[in-house]
Amino acid sequence: MSECVIPTLTSNEVVASKSVLPAGWKPDLTDLKALDLTLPMLELLRRSTSRLPQDVIDALVKGRDAEEEGSRAFNTLNDMVRNIILADGHVTPLCQDTGTIIVWVRHPYGLSQRAAKQQVRAAVAEATKRSWLRPNCVEALSGKNTGTNMDPFHEGHPAVHFEEWDKPEVQIAVMQKGGGCENVGAQYRLPDAALGAGRDIKGVRKCIIDAVVKAQGQGCSPGILGVAIGGDRVTSYEKSKELILRKLGTSNPDPKMDAFEKEITNDLNTLGIGPMGYGGNTTVLGVMAEEMYRHPASFYVSISYMCWSSRRGSITLKTNGEVSFD
Amino acid sequence: MIRLTTPITEDQIRQLKVGDEVLLNGRVVLSRDMGHKYMKEQKPEWLKPILENMVIYHCGPVVKKHEDGHYSFVAAGPTTSIREEPYQADVIETYKVRGVIGKGGMGKKTSEGLQKTGAVYLHATGGAGSLLAERCKRVVDVKMLEEFGSPEAFWIIEVEDFPLVVTMDSHGGSLHEIVAQQSQERAKALMA
């Protein structure tokens, strides 16, 4: 049980050979009105649901190797690596909770957001039909499952964000965020008397420690935290989620925040919660923090907790017809 | 490593202690939020022979329906158990359930239920949906599929060498409580 499992994934060539995109498919961005995002979106979901980003795998392996061999924490991280290999090999969901589907579409001027939203929805419905996604969209009060991952009012789920940008290319990013980790997210309003947390970086730090201790193993630790400082209740939470799209091991462009991220990550890993809350040295894989602007009277700290199975990815369609995944 | 096969006797359960690693075999019944609310509020008789001396698994699987009509599990890891805290102890007592599989652990009320009836809480690795689905060998039956939808239905399955850790035993022990306490103390020191 305790040998180190080496996370060897299938090659990019094999992944490409299973693509739902026709061989040699090239997007034509000269006519954005005719561009159909359904298949690129479907292919993105096929990958995100079954194949964990390399930076997340590296962080899990690094965590495992820092645990005592044969310990519960070590074995659990090893099982996580085994699971990553299996899901990738079978092209099946890494986790049965394929999450809330959150999508960011970035596009040049001229793309119809209404049409793009319908295409994203069609892809999510098709991925659900193919058992790549679990039907995770239920009516709030009755709990009735629509079975398709669609809410019938064309909003809500999947959550699709749009941004018009200066680049000529179209990019779709996706995050599959499980319910367990979503439930342990938290929003604080500073000052917080109970925590003794004031309106400064020390106060922010206390909020983060408090949220992680409250979460224990319930968000499927080791987790990845997105921390937004400032904003209003909505923009703050939204930013905290978007931050989780950043790759682990990359630096925060703000040197002060970068130092803060590294320090708080080390502190959190001394809490002893460990993988799945079994105890151990690997409680978080990383923290991504960003400072925003705020109303003078409000000071929110919003923390989104992502489980170890941080399923995210993007597809970029370029003007020369190139398609790239990240 | 302890091998257990369902149905399980109270005597077998009383021997298990926090920290024991278990490989479970035999029949297991899936149930989560809607199922637990239904079991506590309506106490359906028809579930009694299905659940007596059996193990409940908190899981909403991704299921594939094959062309000939049979089902198989594609991804089937545990869901967060604490949501069933208001119901679990009653369900264990009403149906004489011997084990509950989930993740994250459960609270005081459930712990008391485990002690009273003679049952344990078994922790599975959250997120290991692919790995655990491989150990779910056969879907025997499914109940309330229409009413609850696929993630919430009572799936009755057979598992083989399903890897688990006893994190709450029938003597009041809880690994979750120990880890929570230690981490709270450490947090206090970090915030000082």
UniProtKB/TrEMBL annotation, chain B:
SUPFAM superfamilies: FumA C-terminal domain-like. Gene3D superfamilies: Fe-S hydro-lyase, tartrate dehydratase beta-type, catalytic domain (3.20.130.10). Keywords: Lyase. Pfam families: Fumerase_C. Residues 2-177 form the Fe-S hydro-lyase tartrate dehydratase beta-type catalytic domain. Belongs to the class-I fumarase family. This is Fe-S hydro-lyase tartrate dehydratase beta-type catalytic domain-containing protein. The lineage of its organism: Bacteria, Pseudomonadati, Acidobacteriota, Holophagae, Holophagales.
